[in-house]
């Protein structure tokens, strides 16, 4: 007989990898009653994902684990490069320095170390419960909640939650309980992944690059502090079985000077890279995130990054819905916003993959000639892909339904000074909705109802000053927010909890309208019922 409880959790998260951990952490920090169900009894201790970008660093910051994450990552000091067999650069992407989010443009890590940080932080939340070794075997979708049947070390049990998130990977059990279709672009390549620990300290320059040699396309990247990863494309005459052996791994590493005397192999495995996404990420009280919703080749390093974007987009919306401050239809904008954005990541990953996955020498020579002529500039050397912007959702609209410049794009994070403390903006505000204004003047247009609404959604109001600030004012950095706002004639901007721009205003009445639009969209969201097919540039990439 299964154990049951009358308790109803706010959210049950199926899967406790990085995406499930981040969802647990963000929702737990918001005070939501969360249970995470992980079928494996212990953490998986081998490498998988290795890269995150500046935007994801800001998400770690929002989750309160910034310093812990920095301690287990290596920021990239140089560029990410593709070279042909002769060593000539085909594509060069600058990954050095900090990106717009105030974090390194690119960082590399070992997933077990990162997961340990996230899991510890999630489990420390008083409202988060984790059950490891607990496999979900059935779900019943009710009007007010979902009933999950599980099996684990203590036998069968049931769990009830108002919402269930499937963060349970490419073979998602939660997805199998949904009727959604999948768009698959038919991009399939098998690669041998070899994760290593070199015994000596070495200067790997560039830190991350691709060898586009038709005799054996190869990826060479960091695997986090003290680690290196090699990836080798399976050639047509090879089987997966003969490729995925320790003997083959050492044979392929030998030309790179890696031997059992100077290197330890942590793992070798063959992955089939794919490019696909689920067409509807929410059905009623069932929601998908991470690999359960989309998969992509790793060439742009955006697989786990996309899952983290899912987590923060979904977390703030679920929190408002659970608090009764937003209509449940708000959750449909999760699909419409994230699906379009993730297609950029998939398109870029495929475009980069098509640079390296060329096995015909004549085709490779033609590729080399074309890309070298483009000066290794990714803007000219690669096919066009959809821009990294959110799809339709919680975004300011003009009367004709169009978007103004920058709406739905990632906003930057600069340092700001408040009460003598200089720090990145989110460290001063605590995250959430942020209203930036050019001084206090634009705020005078807001009435008591506007201010009450902003307080209710946990928004921070930040009146910025350019040169000196009063006792309770915020001093902007010289090249911070105000120069950019003034360049475009804006006196106010509203930034969402996931750092995307909701909208900007040219004057005080415009700010009042902006707040009114946000209130209206949370209470009566525009529901996106049907998704459009993949954008033509992305289909063009798939068909090349």
Secondary-structure content class: alpha+beta
Number of strands: 28
The whole-number mean of residue pLDDT values reads 93
Shape: globular
| Straight-line distance between termini | 56 Å
Instruction: Report the sheet with the most strands, covering strand number, pairing sense and barrel closure.
Output: 8 strands, mixed
Q: How big is the Rg?
A: 24 Å
Amount of beta strand: 25-35%
Unreliable residue stretches: 528-533, 539-543
Provide a count of the helices: 16
- Percent helix, as a range, is 25-40%
Protein architecture, described:
The protein has 544 residues and is of the alpha+beta class. The protein has 16 helices and 28 strands. The strands form five sheets. Strands 1, 2, 8, 9, 10, 11, 19 and 20 form an eight-stranded mixed sheet that branches. A seven-stranded mixed sheet has the order 6-5-14-15-16-13-17. Strands 23-22-26-25-24-27-28 form a seven-stranded mixed sheet, sandwiched between helices. The radius of gyration is 24 Å and the shape is globular. The protein starts with 7 loop residues before the first strand and ends with a helix. The relative contact order is 0.13.
């Amino acid at each position: 007989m299964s154990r049951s409880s009358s308790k109803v959790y706010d959210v049950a998260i199926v899967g406790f990898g990085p995406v499930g951990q981040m969802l647990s952490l963000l929702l737990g920090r918001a005070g939501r009653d969360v249970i995470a169900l992980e079928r494996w009894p212990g953490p998986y201790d081998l490498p998988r994902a290795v890269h995150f970008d500046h935007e994801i660093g800001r998400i770690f910051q929002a989750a309160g684990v910034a310093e812990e994450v920095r301690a287990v990552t290596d920021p990239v000091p140089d560029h990410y490069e593709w070279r042909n067999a002769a060593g000539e650069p085909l594509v060069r992407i600058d990954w050095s320095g900090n990106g717009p989010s105030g974090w390194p443009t690119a960082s590399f890590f070992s997933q077990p170390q990162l997961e340990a940080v996230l899991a510890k932080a999630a489990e420390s939340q008083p409202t988060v419960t984790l059950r490891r070794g607990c496999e979900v075997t059935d779900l019943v979708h009710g009007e007010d909640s979902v009933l999950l049947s599980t099996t684990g070390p203590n036998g069968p049990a049931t769990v009830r939650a108002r919402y269930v998130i499937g963060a349970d990977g490419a073979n998602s059990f939660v997805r199998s309980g949904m009727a959604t279709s999948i768009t698959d672009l038919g991009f399939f390549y098998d690669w041998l992944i070899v994760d290593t620990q070199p015994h000596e300290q070495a200067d790997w320059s560039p830190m991350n690059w691709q060898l586009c040699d038709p005799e054996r396309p190869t990826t060479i990247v960091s695997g986090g502090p003290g680690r290196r990863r090699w990836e080798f494309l399976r050639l047509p005459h090879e089987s997966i079985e003969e490729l995925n052996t320790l003997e083959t791994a050492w044979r392929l590493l030998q030309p790179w000077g890696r031997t059992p005397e100077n290197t330890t192999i942590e793992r070798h495995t063959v992955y089939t890279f794919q490019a696909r996404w689920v067409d509807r990420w929410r059905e009623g009280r069932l929601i998908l995130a991470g690999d359960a919703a989309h998969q992509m080749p790793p060439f742009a390093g955006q697989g786990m990054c996309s899952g983290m974007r899912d987590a923060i987009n979904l977390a703030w919306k679920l929190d408002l819905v659970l608090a009764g401050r937003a209509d449940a239809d708000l959750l449909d904008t999760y699909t419409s916003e994230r699906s379009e954005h993730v297609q950029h990541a998939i398109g870029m990953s495929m475009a980069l993959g098509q640079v390296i996955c060329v096995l015909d020498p004549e085709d490779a020579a033609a590729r080399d000639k074309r890309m070298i002529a483009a000066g290794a500039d990714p803007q000219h050397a690669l096919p066009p892909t959809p821009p990294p912007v959110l799809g339709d959702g919680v975004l300011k609209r003009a009367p004709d339904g169009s978007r103004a410049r920058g709406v739905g794009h990632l906003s930057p994070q600069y340092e700001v000074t408040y009460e003598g403390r200089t720090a990145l903006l989110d460290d001063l505000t605590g995250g959430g909705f942020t209203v930036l204004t050019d001084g206090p003047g634009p705020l005078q247009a807001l009435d008591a109802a506007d201010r009450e609404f902003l307080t209710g959604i946990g928004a921070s109001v930040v009146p910025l000053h350019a040169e000196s600030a009063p006792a309770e004012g915020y001093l902007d950095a010289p090249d911070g927010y105000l120069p950019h706002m003034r360049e475009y004639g804006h006196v106010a901007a509203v930034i969402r909890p996931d750092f995307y721009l909701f909208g900007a205003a040219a004057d005080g009445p415009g700010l009042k309208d902006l707040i009114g639009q946000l209130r209206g969209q949370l209470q009566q969201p525009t529901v996106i019922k049907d998704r459009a097919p993949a954008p033509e540039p992305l289909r063009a990439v798939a068909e090349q």
